[in-house]
Amino acid sequence: MKRSDILWLAFEKFAIFFSFAVTFTVVIVVLVLGFVLFQQRESLLGLKDGVVCDTVTGLNALLDDFENAVITSTVPISETIPVEFTLPLDQNISVRLTQGVDLKRPTTMVLPGGGGRINGTVYLELQKGLRLPIELNTMVPVSQQLPVTMNVPVEIPLKDTELGGVIQQLRSLLEPLQLEKLEETLQCRGR
Length: 191
What we know:
The chain is of the alpha+beta class. It has one domain (3-186). It is built from four helices and four strands.
């Protein structure tokens, strides 16, 4: 998936979420305004107390549900990331010769008992397959492009987002209409 596709998908999800939040806020405002108008109308027309009590109870329950809601989704990630570093190698290893190696070295041989010295050349062949112990001490540069493909689960509690503030504002708007206060005013106990 291209980076532009990922960005478009993120924008699309944000737009849907933002549209939902705006719609929810408008519905709550309409309900609150409707409640206020109902309250005024009720006092003038003497409507039953149950409608107001049920509306406030429903709004409080709706806000509780909305505040405790969690957005759960899985975000697919498919990217290629550059990896560049230098790897230090310092260890003793054993290597196997893949072909014979001819050695020609000048040498001096000392004869025992003061017999003198002989200067000469030693010819030697290391056979193919011979294992030689060596000390490996070097820095290896690494420069690769690694593909990363995974699905990342995401859980976002709405109360921890910007909507948490909106919910608290709606609660503060409904505070004067709490059920206990309405019960005293409208005598809607037992509903």
